[in-house]
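Q: What would this chain look like folded?
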Amino acid sequence: MNAQRRQSEQGRRPGRAWKAAQQHAPRHQKPDRYGRESVRGPLMSILLGAMALIVLCLPPLAAQAGSWGGTVLSKGLVYDDVYGVVGGNAIMTKKVDEQAGLDVMQMDLVGSDGTVKFSTGFIFNDDPYPQMLPHESYAYRPASGWGGRGPGSSYAFRSGDGSIVVQSNEDDSYSYVTPAGETFVSGADGIATAPGISQAIEARLNDGALDLKLWDTASGRLLDQQRMGDAIRSISFFNGFDPQYDGDWSVSWYAQTSDDERARHSIEIIDNKMHIDYSDPDSRPPLPPYDPDNVHTSNGYTIKLTEARDLSFTLPDGTSFIIRGPFLNTSCSSDGIITTSKDNGGAYETHFYTIDGAELFAGRGFSRIVRIENGTEYLCSRSVDGWPTYEICRPDESAGTPLHTAEHGTCEVVGSYITEVIGNYTGERRLTRIFDRTGSVRLAFDPSEQCLYFWKVYYNEEDYPAPSPEIYRVQEQHGKNAYYDKDLNLITEFDGDLGVAQEIDGEMLAHLLPNTASPYGNRPLPLFDKNIQPALLNGMQRVRAAGAAGRGELNYVTDGKGRYGALDDRGREMIPIAFENICDLGENLDDSTILVKRDGKWYFMDVTGREPQPQAPAFSDVVAGETPHAEHIAWLAASGVSKGWGNGDGTYSFRPYAEVARCDMAAFLYRMAGEPAFEPTAEQCAAFRDVDEGTPHAREVWWLAAQGISAGWDEADGTRTFRPYDTVKRCDMAAFLDRLSAATRAAAPSAGSPFADVGSSTPHRASILWLASNEISKGWTEPDGTMTFRPYDTVKRADMAAFLHRMDEKGLVGEA
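A: My prediction, written as structure tokens:
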């Protein structure tokens, strides 16, 4: 039996059975030796009373579902990179050509049904920095730079309502494209939007003046308009900033007024009005009151520079005192050191005080002091011949410990340690040594190692229970990072860097930004806890899928082998760990839809249970109105349950008239049951003499027998056979579905038979009548007006699509 290797899609089905469901991990199936397609259904089941013991071993009903974990809303979309979902839309990019060694990219605004609403194109040039250059085949390109990490880094999709801003490839003017893909504003010299707010500012140059209009993009209403300037030649970097919590936002840009004059300006949008910082003083937003005497307040302490240029200290208990100046200026560091410059008869001296007014190292001539954490020591420096020299000093000691540094080396306090660096911040800066508080060298680096920075990973005390871990990292020039504990023992090394920690489910987690990330198709980023250990959930590492680590009860995870899915807070699988990628920008930008990638294609998926809108069949051998059950086949395709076979020319076929073998039926039933955990015993593997490890869907066949759904045939030699390659008869199919769904039976079958060819001796008569009573099968109307079921006919794939869809619609499997 020379077999065609099967193409199969492990899809989930939409429907009522899923709405309160989680699911178990799909298992990869062996290719069917006959080239049959593997159809994955996600219906769950309550088995027969005879299977009660087995049912008790299965996860609860709410933990069972199909193989996707949500409702698939679109067909599979082939793109290199995606960013979304925002307001039901995503932007998707793909390479379509090459030109002069550069990639020609297409970026589309795509709706959740897979419809391309607006298309742009550009030439991607990343030398010396990422640029989107015009391409003659496209009228528009995205409005601003790629950013080097995919389309999500562009401002073109930043408005937070699913709209984009594009730039004309003909005249470089800007247009605003609504979430519906319609051009709302076009031909502007600049357009600014703000995330999460349906507002946009349109800017147009008119005889040296800049005309500004503030639009409500949701309603199309003009909110405000103003004119500024009289000699503006051009504007640039006209971008929106993040909105404030109260909905106000701001815009900044540069106005070119001459060949060598460029000024930065801004607009504050407050209560739907524009306040401009230029031309009209009355239009400026009100500034908060400013107290020039106020230097520092913290934990009940107040330090002020008075009008008499004295320092005034007020302690938490209300005690106040003055230190006489005159002081020229005063500043307070984050560790509570007050630094002042005092006029001593024309000679300026630097003085240092603690927050409660005690002077530090008086008369020692230091120009700078920094406290070393977790002790009483300070790193103190003074200038000698234009270069700093360093001592480690304690307030209760009259002399410090000199720190012997390299020539032209500079030192800084980092947590509990001191770093030595040679070079400067703008040139060849190299980390050379790390000292402890005694001046001993703890780590040394050869300048050729190109280590640039030694940083402490700081934690907000409000976010972490005390004590917080003391973690340090060394960054190399090419982005590699090594992390150390408080004693400078190496914890781990990354070819990348941990980003800023975010609070996720009450815990601060940081994501790893790898240096090897592609500008196209970035994957979810692994998360690490405050101890730089993988953040695990039920043994799997948590990840951030684009902008979110999860939503609701979903927590995104990876198996570490390039597959992603989601678990709930108890570690139960909600989305199978079977996807190549997941993209989720968060519930604040779209409350229901995420993007998932499977078999090289992207799908919009609703994770709230909304039903999909079935698409027309995409099969070359299925014609609406002609092929039997075309609408059910369409449901199968739109749901991602079946994708058919590739024809080699870009089209697909479903083979609606192909017959279903018994081994295939076993696979259907197992998947309908939610793919419960099942490892057959040696005894179960020996149930049928004609089923072994090489039999297609052998594991599912053994599961079927273990549940009592099929016992097979008793042979003359005392063995049992399953006859896996026999085709399924319609009467057998009725029995299989009935047994699997017994606990959800809607009504007992009527005593009489509606079918002329189903009598008391017909195999599985009761199951056939159950199928009919629930309108899963209606049979055929014969010329004489009678109805027949044709129990001995084989089941066709088209019929199976109808049976599965009807059972799903009626909730006959998976709902107790």
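The chain has five domains: 16-71+614-728+794-810, 137-283, 289-360, 362-494, 500-606.
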